[in-house]
């Protein structure tokens, strides 16, 4: 929790090598609509950080600023040691090759097989795969990680919603990213499939030591996956803490997130 809550112990500040994302005083408005009003966030190495905020609170805007898809009005954003604002397009592309994305709805290309979907980011980030002529072992490894090696030649239309999400996860990890951004990873899935996806996210964190920023409305997902959480309310990082710390908060705005 933030300083106002005296019951929560203060954590030691991470060193710069331990920081994967640092957002300082991020501000973004659209006309009169002030969406981000001084948002701060730090993601540490190997950590799963969940950001929760109600619909329209600015989570997607924050992620877009983070990966250089949207320019903030002001603020500092550092990702993997690079200041986003100072990167040219080539440098931004190179940085993105270290970032895996899993967006809502899986976003697989319908006209490509599962294998082609997985090869797509590899083609886009050729430089990272220089010298690798046979992509098959990498595709297989990524699919094995999500238990779907047998689907390589199928089309997305032949997969269930849960399988599509797994393939999208395989596509996110094929670049062996240092950081994964998950936008609503369990949305639209039934509780059992959601659990399976969360389990896979945890496996990936353990196997590859990736850091993850997870945007979700799903309280169960946040409970299982998060080491730390930030609640985005009124354009700022309103509250921070572990799931247990936040669910025990007396603050009505924090409380509202955990009411079923
Ligand atoms: N390109 C844009 N132009 C104008 N307004 C925008 C633009 N992008 C986002 N907004 C506004 O910014 C606010 C935050 O939007 P954002 O998509 O970040 O919300 P969110 O927290 O991700 O919501 P959800 O959980 O529903 O996805 C909204 O009021 C939205 O209308």
Automatic annotation (TrEMBL):
InterPro entries: AAA+_ATPase, ABC_transporter-like_ATP-bd, ABC_transporter-like_CS, P-loop_NTPase
Pfam families reported in the protein's UniProt record: ABC_tran
Occurrences of domain ABC transporter (ranges): 21-259
PROSITE patterns: ABC_TRANSPORTER_1 (PS00211), ABC_TRANSPORTER_2 (PS50893)
Superkingdom as given in the UniProt entry: Bacteria
Molecular function via GO: ATP binding; ATP hydrolysis activity
Alphabetical keyword list: ATP-binding, Nucleotide-binding, Transport
Record-given protein name: ATP-binding cassette domain-containing protein
Organism per entry: Flagellimonas sediminis
């Amino acid at each position: 929790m933030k300083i106002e809550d005296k019951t929560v112990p203060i954590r030691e500040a991470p060193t710069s090598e331990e920081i994967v994302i640092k957002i300082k005083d991020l501000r973004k408005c659209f006309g009169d609509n002030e969406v981000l009003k001084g948002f701060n966030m730090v993601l540490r190495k190997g950590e799963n950080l969940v950001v929760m905020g109600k619909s329209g609170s600015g989570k997607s805007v924050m992620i877009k600023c983070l990966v250089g898809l949207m320019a903030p009005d002001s603020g500092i954003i550092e990702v993997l040691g690079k200041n986003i604002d100072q990167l040219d397009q080539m440098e931004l592309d190179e940085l993105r090759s270290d970032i895996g994305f899993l967006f809502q709805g899986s976003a697989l290309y319908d006209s490509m097989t599962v294998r082609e979907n997985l090869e797509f980011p590899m083609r886009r980030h050729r430089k990272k795969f220089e010298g690798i002529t046979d992509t098959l072992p990498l595709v297989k490894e990524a699919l094995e990680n999500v238990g779907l090696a047998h689907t390589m030649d199928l089309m997305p239309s032949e997969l269930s919603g849960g399988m599509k999400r797994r393939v999208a996860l395989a596509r996110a990890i094929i670049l062996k990213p240092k950081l994964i951004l998950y936008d609503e990873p369990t949305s639209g899935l039934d509780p059992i499939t959601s659990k399976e996806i969360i389990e896979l996210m945890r496996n990936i964190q353990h196997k590859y030591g990736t850091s993850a920023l997870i945007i979700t409305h799903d309280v169960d997902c946040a409970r299982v996956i998060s080491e730390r959480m930030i609640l985005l309310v009124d354009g700022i990082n309103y509250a921070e803490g572990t799931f247990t710390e936040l669910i025990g908060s007396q603050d009505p705005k924090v409380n509202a997130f955990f009411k079923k």
